[in-house]
Design a protein that fits this description.
By secondary structure, this protein is an alpha+beta fold. It has helices at residues 2-8, 31-40, 42-48, 155-189, 261-274, 294-298, 302-307, 399-409, 411-424; strands at residues 25-30, 56-58, 65-84, 88-102, 108-124, 130-141, 195-198, 201-207, 212-213, 217-228, 231-232, 255-260, 279-281, 314-319, 325-329, 332-337, 340-346, 352-371, 374-381, 386-392, 426-427, 434-444, 447-456. The termini are close together.
């Protein structure tokens, strides 16, 4: 299974529930990914080639003489993978297999060169996972070396033993490769599942059609669904189909992942529906520089001082009734929040008195980063916060004075809260033990691209 996981990297990033035919994510594996798989795949390939050779039965004499044969070592000299356009992957490998033949009167060793050629079909399974299968496989067996002329074992017997070994290998080597590939499919099948986004939310990916394969890359159209309390987040049906252009990201990289506007809209809708963006902002009543009390507020709004001659705590209840919006433009990502803010005086442990309420618009810059397999975000405020007084129980409220207050007590708690949420990140399509390394993130019109290397953590 370890070998299967190692070679399973060549399908890296695929997953899980089909409820729409429009991809929100495209994962493209380039030639560099196959080169990396060739490197880390030598060890599992060597193990796969260590087949068992049954005893050779010498029928030249009056009594059958069994000769035990054991593979001592498999050394893979060459392992190369390349894309077959419209089909899958071509595998070529060369190895030396060293055998110990327990002849009488003394054992000997021989080395047999082997070349393997196989075509691997890459397709989509009925459950939305990648599936690989051996289409054709040819073992080419060379002539053995290391015969010892001084060994008393007859050349005739050794020729028969070699013929026996080649007959076994002609059958077993391709069966062993097929078994290795089957192990990859078992591993990839475990990818169907929910990946946590938060305590009550998950994301699931699935392939939605057959992969696109050229001589340069293999591309997977993947649909992502976000769930809240087990229910999918559904976007409006007029979603623009996402197509990842050919020449985006970093040239020569292993993997290119495209994330559509649709995916960001779904994530923000999830946060809004979960109430994760809501927060209450409070201050310490006895703090000398705390403006969140009726005494400080009364200096701006006389009616507050009249209603509350004694200082009482003030709470800002921030609620996101409207879905946040992300805007993706070349080299520029922004986020807009439109919270409703109610300003309340705390008159007892469980009672609040509404002072006034505000409609607020906050524009923010949005920066992306990667941590292992998660895309993370951080924000900072762009320009001035816009606000409008929508109701008041304390008479006329001067918006300019309230604007000063909001800049003091509202902006930093909102940013801290939002950055903590975005810092949790959202898992990109991945397989177990596979990490994105040295990623570069590019923002284009309506989508984000992540280019980087891959590292399989054994």
């Amino acid at each position: 299974m370890t070998g299967a996981r190692g070679l399973g990297l060549l399908l890296v990033l695929l997953l899980p529930v089909v409820s729409a035919s429009i991809p929100s994510t495209v994962v493209r594996l380039n030639k560099a990914a196959l080169s990396y798989v060739s490197e880390i795949g030598k060890a599992p390939l060597q193990r796969a080639l260590q087949v068992t050779v049954p005893h050779f039965l010498d029928q030249s004499g009056e009594v059958l003489q069994p000769t035990r044969i054991q593979i001592l070592n498999v050394h893979v000299l060459h392992f190369h993978l390349k894309f077959i356009a419209g089909f899958g992957i071509h595998l070529s490998a060369a190895a030396n297999l060293t055998f110990k033949i327990f002849c009488v009167p003394e054992p000997l060793e021989l080395t047999l060169p082997v070349e393997l050629l196989a075509d691997v079909r890459v397709a989509k399974s009925s459950i939305g996972t990648p599936v690989v299968s051996i289409s054709t496989c040819f073992p080419l067996l060379g002539h053995s070396s290391n015969f010892d002329d001084s060994n008393s074992t007859s050349h005739a017997l050794l020729a028969l033993v070699q013929k026996h070994i080649k007959a076994v290998l002609s059958n077993k080597l391709c069966l062993s490769i097929a078994s290795l590939v089957q192990g990859i499919n078992v591993h990839l099948g475990t990818l169907i599942g929910l990946n946590p986004v938060g305590p009550e939310s998950q994301i699931r990916y699935t392939m939605i059609n057959e992969p696109t394969i050229t001589s340069d890359y293999i591309s997977f159209d993947i649909h992502a669904i976000l769930f809240l309390l087990g229910k999918p987040i559904i976007l409006p049906k007029d979603v623009t189909p996402f197509v990842l252009p050919h020449h985006v990201g970093t040239k020569g990289t292993m993997a290119t992942v495209g994330l559509s506007q649709n995916l960001f809209d779904s994530a923000l809708l999830l946060l809004q529906k979960a109430g994760a963006l809501n927060l209450d902002i409070t201050g310490e009543l006895r703090s000398d520089d705390n403006p969140l009390n009726t005494s400080a507020l009364g200096r701006l709004i006389p009616e507050v001082a009249r209603q509350f001659p004694e200082p009482m705590p003030v709470v800002l209840k921030v609620r996101l009734g409207a879905t946040p919006m992300a805007f993706l433009h070349p080299k520029n990502a922004t986020l807009q929040l439109q919270p409703f803010v109610e300003v309340l005086a705390v008159v007892s442990n469980s009672a609040f008195h509404s002072l006034f309420s505000l409609d607020v618009v906050v524009n923010m810059s949005l920066q992306f980063s990667m941590s292992k397999v998660k895309l993370q975000g951080s924000t900072s405020v762009l320009g001035d916060i816009q606000l409008t007084v929508t109701s008041s129980n304390v008479g006329l409220v001067d918006e300019d004075q309230v604007h000063t207050l909001m800049g003091t007590v509202f902006e930093k708690p909102l940013l801290d809260h939002l950055n903590a949420l975005l810092g949790i990140g959202i898992a990109l399509p991945n397989v177990i033990n596979l990490l994105y390394v040295t990623p570069e993130i590019f923002v284009y019109e309506g989508y984000v691209v992540i280019s980087g290397g891959l590292f399989y953590q054994r």
